[in-house]
Structures are given as structure tokens and as C-alpha cells.
Amino acid sequence: MAQIQLSDAQAFILSTACAREDGAIFPVTASLKGGAVGNVCKSLLKRGLIEEIAATDLNTVWRHDEERGPITLRATLLACSTLGITDEQSGTPPAQTPTSAVQRRKGTKQETLIEMLRAEGGATIDEIVAATGWQPHTVRGAMSGALKKKLGLHVTSEKVENRGRMYSLSEA
Asked: How far apart are CA 110 and CA 113, in angstroms?
């Protein structure tokens, strides 16, 4: 099977949708303006990477159909497998799995970062650097880019006496 080439905007929208439990495309978290979201979605629809389904939340409506009513979009199995996102046990994308939790790959540096930030008391940049082997700027970039923007996690920081700046994940 030929590999599907995706633009940055397409990959961002699909990875966000595949990370969601229901695979929903909307709300779009990418910084696309005007008709760009529509153009990206039309392209993904044409390629079978997303599909139209009946909308249950009126804030996520893609278009209105006279027969089916409000329509929204969700990622397909093809989209998640194209991105390499699958549930290790069943081989299906998390967005289409009956279980409620999204499965992430285990043993990755990103997973190590998330575990450290979820631990009691959080972690400092230096502790994360020691655990992952990343440079400090890479740690900060991963927290602001991958965790905050792509995964939608809420990263907080506070200055702790005798320890320095502590970063942790909190419920948003």
C-alpha cells in the first residue's frame, strides 16, 4: 500500500482527532483561518481519512444535510493507521476502540515525560533532562508543543524553594 503524504495541517488535525476518544475532528485546535479548515477537511474526506457522521453537539457541525440533519466529521481507521496510532492489543485506532481510554505507546520519552509530570510534586527541567537525555530546550518545547497543543494537556509550573521551577500536569 502506498504511503499517504499529509501536509502539516492535515497531520495536526488527524493526530488531534485520533487522540480523542470519539475521533472527532471538531473543535479544530489548529491555527487555521477562514476557509483553510474547510479545504483541509474536504481533502481528507476525499482521501477517506475522515468520514461524515450525524452530529449530536451543535457546536461541532460541519454541514447540514436535508435528509440526515446536522453532520460532523470524525477520523477513520485509515487515518489513525496512517499516523501509526493503534491500540497495541486489538490493532485498531484508539478513536474507534470500544474502551474509554486512549492508548499511547509505552516506553517512549514522551510517555516518560508525562509520567514524571503526573508524579507527586512534578519534575524540574533538570530531572526530565536526566531521565530522557533531551536538551532543556527540547523538554520545554515538548511540554508546550506536544503536551499542551497536540495532546491538550494542562502543564503548570511553580517555583519551589530549594528545588527550583517545578512542572506538573493538572486537571484543566
From this structure: 5
Are the CB atoms for 147 and 153 separated by under 8 Å?
A: yes
28 vs 142: CA distance, rounded Å: 20
Query: Which residues does 119 contact at the CB level (< 8 Å), separation at least 6?
Result: 168
Using DSSP, state whether 124 is helix, strand or coil. Answer: coil
Instruction: Report the candidate in 127, 88, 96, 92 with the shortest Cα–Cα distance to residue 17.
Output: 96
Q: Cell 508546550 sits at which residue?
A: 144
- How many helices, marked H, and strands, marked E, lie in the chain? 6, 5
Q: Are 87 and 130 in contact (CB under 8 A)?
A: no
* 24 close to 71: Cβ distance less than 8 angstroms: no
| Integer Cα distance of 80 and 59 in angstroms | 24
Kindly list the structural domains of the chain, giving each domain's residue range(s) and its CATH number in brackets, ordered by start.
8-96 (1.10.10), 109-170 (1.10.10.10)
- Tens place of pLDDT for every residue, the chain, 172 residues? 456 788 888 888 888 888 888 888 988 877 887 788 889 899 999 989 999 998 888 888 888 888 888 999 999 888 888 887 755 444 444 444 433 334 455 678 888 998 899 998 899 999 999 999 999 999 998 888 888 877 778 899 999 888 899 999 876 5
Q: What is the pLDDT of residue 165?
A: 93
